[in-house]
């Protein structure tokens, strides 16, 4: 579709809107009917063109400017007169009727603070790095009286825990199998048992000269050893 034909279609759709009210026929000569699907599209086109021409300098002088269809959000410094900005917007085009609702942000703290548990050596280094970017670190003990005394939830049995790193040690040598699983640990240990019994060559638990040792280990330590969360 050519640009000329598209402009003609828009002209016919916007300048020939007719309606009947109290026995009289009326034709809308400007704007579009309320609720028309063309309304948000034409608003974006119309205001977008004005933003790039008449209001370019005014917008560039603002601290922040953002628009969604016909709703505008902007920030100014404390020396800017909001009424002057509104008058500049309204003078950009006869059809523009802009009103403003000003809000003062009461921000007095220039430094941000973060609360972190204290870890020896690591906390000191983190505090020095954060100070360079204007962030303060407030340390607090990881273990508190409340955390020691109160148990909001019961502890899960290791076999019922999921998304953990687990270890299966050998009883007869210093070899350890370490793995991770996103499922319940009990299900993963059961799979290890089955792999050892069947002599699965792809199982890392079966690797070794005497596979019977791993059978004993898996049988005697059915839960495995939970090292921590993933």
TrEMBL record:
**What domain of life does the UniProt record list for this protein's source?**
Eukaryota
User: PANTHER family, alphabetically?
Assistant: REVERSE TRANSCRIPTASE (PTHR21301), REVERSE TRANSCRIPTASE DOMAIN-CONTAINING PROTEIN (PTHR21301:SF10)
Give the protein name, as stated in the record: Reverse transcriptase domain-containing protein
What does the record give as the organism's lineage?
Answer: Eukaryota, Metazoa, Spiralia, Lophotrochozoa, Platyhelminthes
